[in-house]
């Protein structure tokens, strides 16, 4: 493997102002923490800046010029997101605060209307807490049970038990498209086909997949897909729930208030049409505009190219990490995962690894990455994690490896 990529990383890097900063004088930033949140291109920052400088107004309410302009910008972002994931209609794109809120929306609205005592909900051992806790809360409230798909030693879903689990006729199967720790890309389409044949719906946590690979909801097989703007070059404070229109039509509203109603009487209300039925109150307008610009940026770059670049980076990163004595990388081989490498270094706490790397401006995350049950599975209190995106280079992988040799030297 050579340290070469076909991607024009220099051009991409130049689009992200933060990537040219020094963390401390003389120490340039090497940002390897995009699974936590991605950096933002200038076009996103400028779109939000322009919105506040030129068009700021509340949306869906006023008839004045600014209100119409702001509404068009926000709804234009919804159209971009719908195209990006190939949704059938903008009615299927609900803006939320983040992936977490999108999953909670399903748990509260669909879950409380459809899950009853004794029903089963399927989760997996590799889920982020956002795709565990809402189902734990729902199951506790309703007296439902949680069935768990385990994870193999190699960091893949162990589907040998799935047929038995489906015998219990679960109402819903919840799984991540890509693990934020192992990087595993799960075979969602196959799992969804089996789940549907057994009468279950499928919720996919796309927080780590939608930013990194082409995702087409018409072929994915999911019924619900949740993702966050801030991990896909967009701002914090905006996320997306995509769901099949027929499901959303049947679901009761989640939050009540302005904008989600068609008519309010003193003692009752009539809900608004989709997608507004699920968007109560003044939304994150500037953030919506920023997400629209982020989608334009990713579309312009090409999601297939982003994915291909990350495949090259992760293959090179795994090869180089494995060279370092004492390093263990968790998760499957490069061809079965996205750009995430969680690892440990024998005898060194992950927080110490992260702190020493930070001296050289290398940002990695250390901890349980909001996936405690997965860390329990491997009997690990924590891991260090390097995660890559379109702006990372092979040279940055080399810097990470050099940094790890320094960590080893320091901790003997
Ligand atoms: N993972 C990480 O460092 P929110 O916080 O709602 O934007 O995203 C939640 C979430 C859901 N699912 C997966 C697979 C995720 O990775 C995340 C966020 C970050 O891994 C922050 S904990």
Protein architecture, described:
This protein is an alpha/beta fold and 412 residues long. It has 2 domains: 9-31 and 302-411, Aspartate Aminotransferase, domain 1; 45-300, Type I PLP-dependent aspartate aminotransferase-like (Major domain) (Aspartate Aminotransferase, domain 2), CATH 3.40.640.10. The protein is built from 14 helices and 17 strands. The strands form 5 sheets. A 7-stranded mixed beta sheet has the order 4-10-9-8-7-5-6, with helices on both faces. α2 (42-55) runs antiparallel to α10 (285-301), α3 (65-84) crosses α10 (285-301) and α11 runs parallel beside α14 (394-410). It is globular and about 70 Å long. The mean pLDDT is 97. Residues 35-36, 98-100, 128, 130-131, 176, 180, 205, 207-208, 228, 365, 369-370 line the site of ligand C6P.
Instruction: List unreliable stretches of 5+ residues.
Output: none
How many strand elements?
17
The general outline is globular
Helix content: 25-40%
Straight-line distance between termini: 30 Å
The SS-based structural class is alpha/beta
Beta-strand percent range:
15-25%
Strand order of the largest sheet: 4-10-9-8-7-5-6
Tally of discrete structural domains = 2
Cα-atom radius of gyration: 22 Å
CATH homologous superfamily descriptor of the largest domain: Type I PLP-dependent aspartate aminotransferase-like (Major domain)
Q: What kind of sheet is the major sheet? A: 7 strands, mixed
Which compounds are bound in this model?
Answer: ligand C6P
The CATH architecture of the largest domain can be given as 3-Layer(aba) Sandwich
CATH class of the largest domain: Alpha Beta
Number of helices: 14
What is the average per-residue confidence, as pLDDT, rounded to a whole number? 97
Q: Kindly report the CATH topology of the largest domain.
A: Aspartate Aminotransferase, domain 2
């Amino acid at each position: 493997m050579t340290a070469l990529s076909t991607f024009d990383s220099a051009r991409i890097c130049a689009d992200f102002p933060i990537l040219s900063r020094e963390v401390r004088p003389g120490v340039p930033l090497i940002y390897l923490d995009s699974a936590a949140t991605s950096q933002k291109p200038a076009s996103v920052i400028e779109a939000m800046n322009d919105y506040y400088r030129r068009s700021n107004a509340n949306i869906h309410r006023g008839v004045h010029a600014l209100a119409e302009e702001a509404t068009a910008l926000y709804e234009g972002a919804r159209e971009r997101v719908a195209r990006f994931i190939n949704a059938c209609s903008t009615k299927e794109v609900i803006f939320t605060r983040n992936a977490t809120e999108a999953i909670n929306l399903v748990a509260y609205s669909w879950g409380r209307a459809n899950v009853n005592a004794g029903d089963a909900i399927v989760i997996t051992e590799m889920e982020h807490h956002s795709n565990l806790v809402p189902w734990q809360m729902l199951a506790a409230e309703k007296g439902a049970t949680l069935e768990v798909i385990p994870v193999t030693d190699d960091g893949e879903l162990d589907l040998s038990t799935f047929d038995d689990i489906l015998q219990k006729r679960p109402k819903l199967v919840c799984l991540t498209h890509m693990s934020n720790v192992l990087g595993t890309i799960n075979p969602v389409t196959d799992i969804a086909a089996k789940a549907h044949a057994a009468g279950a719906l499928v919720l996919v946590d796309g927080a780590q997949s939608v930013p990194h690979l082409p995702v087409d909801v018409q072929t994915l097989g999911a019924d619900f897909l949740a993702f966050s703007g801030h991990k896909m070059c967009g701002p914090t404070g905006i996320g997306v729930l995509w769901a099949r229109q027929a499901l959303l039509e049947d679901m009761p509203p989640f939050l009540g208030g302005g904008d989600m109603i068609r008519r309010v009487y003193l003692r009752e209300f009539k809900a608004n049409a989709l997608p507004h039925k699920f968007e109560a109150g003044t939304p994150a307008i500037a953030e919506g505009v920023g997400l629209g610009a982020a989608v334009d940026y990713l579309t312009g770059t090409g999601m297939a190219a982003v994915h291909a670049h990350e495949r090259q980076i992760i293959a090179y990163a795994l090869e180089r990490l494995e060279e370092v004595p004492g390093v263990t990388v968790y998760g499957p081989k490069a061809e079965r995962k996205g750009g995430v490498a969680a690892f440990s270094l024998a005898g060194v706490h992950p927080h110490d690894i992260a702190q020493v790397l930070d001296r050289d401006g290398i940002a990695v995350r250390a901890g349980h990455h909001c996936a405690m049950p997965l860390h329990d599975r491997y009997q690990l209190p924590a891991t260090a994690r390097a995660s890559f995106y379109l702006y990372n280079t092979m040279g940055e992988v080399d810097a990470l490896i050099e940094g790890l040799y320094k960590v080893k030297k320091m901790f003997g």
